[in-house]
Write a structure and sequence with these properties.
Strand content: over 45%
Distance between the termini: 30 Å
Number of strands: 6
Largest sheet: 6 strands, mixed
Amino acid sequence: MNLIELSKKYFNLFINKNINGLRLMFSEDIILRDWETSKEGIEQVVSQNQIILDNLSNFELKILNISQLENIIYAEIEIILANDEIVRVLDKIEFDQEYKIKKITAFKG
C-alpha cells in the first residue's frame, strides 16, 4: 500500500470536509496532537476534526513537501484561510499495520 497516496487521500477528505471519509481512515485508538489540543480515541478525534472544519469556512490546502520513513508520513502543508492568512503546518502521520491512521501530530510554524 502506498502511504503517500493514502496521505494525499486524507488531505483531500480534509479539504472537502468529509468527516465520514476521515473516520474510515482512522484507527479506533487514534491520537491527535497539535499546538492547541490533544485527543485520543476515534470519537474524540472525529469530534475535534469536526470542530476544526466547522471553524474553517473557505480554505485551501497545499502540500508543499511529502515524504515517507517506514510507516510515517511527513507532510509540509500550507492552509490558506479565507482572509488570505497562511498557516504553515508540518503533519506527522503514523499508520498501523492495517493502513489506518493511528497518530497525527501537527506542528505549526
